[in-house]
Specification:
By secondary structure, this protein is of the alpha+beta class. The protein is 19% helix and 19% strand. The strands form two sheets. The protein has a four-stranded antiparallel β-sheet with strand order 1-2-3-4. Strands 5-6-7 form a three-stranded antiparallel β-sheet, with no helix packed on it.
């Protein structure tokens, strides 16, 4: 399931969800370890791996549609709602010390095709903002 880290963005028709919430069963977790050459029954090998699934449950990670995740999975949680609540509590955009804070919520305009590389993008329409969305969906 795709959600917004900031629920206020859901009403912006140009905003993209930036979090994926998903369930991992014990079998799915074992499969991830096996696919990466790790014996899923070897506790020591599992603990020493870079794979961060610690048990069955709901997880989330930051990820724009069509892109690889931008973070490690966080979880497990008993429900999807608990995972979403944890994400919004721990990763709020309301950090006053954040130097990248633009002081506004970007509103993206229509798609444009880059003349240089031919990719699709959208620019924030707020005057003075230089943020560009490179999601590439039309």
């Amino acid at each position: 399931m795709r959600v917004y880290s900031d629920p206020k963005r859901a009403s912006d028709k140009y905003a993209l969800s930036d979090v994926e919430v998903f369930y991992m069963s014990a079998d799915a977790i074992a499969s991830v370890f096996a696919d990466n050459g790790i014996d899923p029954t070897d506790d020591r090998a599992r603990e020493n791996s870079d794979i961060r699934y610690t048990g069955p449950g709901w997880y989330y990670w930051f990820c724009f549609p069509g892109c690889m995740p931008d973070s490690e999975p966080s979880g497990p949680f008993a429900t999807a709602d608990l995972a979403i609540a944890d994400m919004r509590e721990n990763y709020s955009d309301d950090d006053p010390d954040d130097e990248t804070d633009t002081g506004h919520v970007c509103t993206f305009g229509p798609f444009e095709r880059s003349q240089l590389v031919g990719t699709l993008h959208r620019k924030c329409t707020v005057p003075g903002c230089s943020i560009v969305s490179l999601d590439g969906d039309e």
